[in-house]
Specification:
With 105 residues, the protein is of the alpha+beta class. The protein has one domain: Glutaredoxin, CATH 3.40.30.10. The longest helix has 16 residues. It starts with a strand and ends with a helix. The model has no long low-confidence stretch (mean pLDDT 94). This is Glutaredoxin. It comes from Lacticaseibacillus chiayiensis.
Length: 105
Amino acid sequence: MAIHFVVYEKPHCEACRLTRRWLLTHHQRFRTTNRRGETNLVDPNSEDPLKRSWSAQKVVKFRQDGYDRFPIVRVRDDETGDVLATWNGFHPEALASWAAINRLG
């Protein structure tokens, strides 16, 4: 199975930086942008009103889904686009587990 990670970050987030570094160090494919090339940076204080609005909506959605810190990491199946797993925070053990599955695929 081939997968990639989708990472939602916020500004000045140490756990986000660690997650990104782990993915880069372990040569894992990940996206920090959507399919339109817009950043997944969640910034409710952005000067851009569209970004502020999008960010506020994302924060509400993430909280409703039970996520209370960043980054939000999603694992997606490359073939189907299905979300296989989602978690929040820096979790190297989860990243390593999915990276191992990715190597087997």
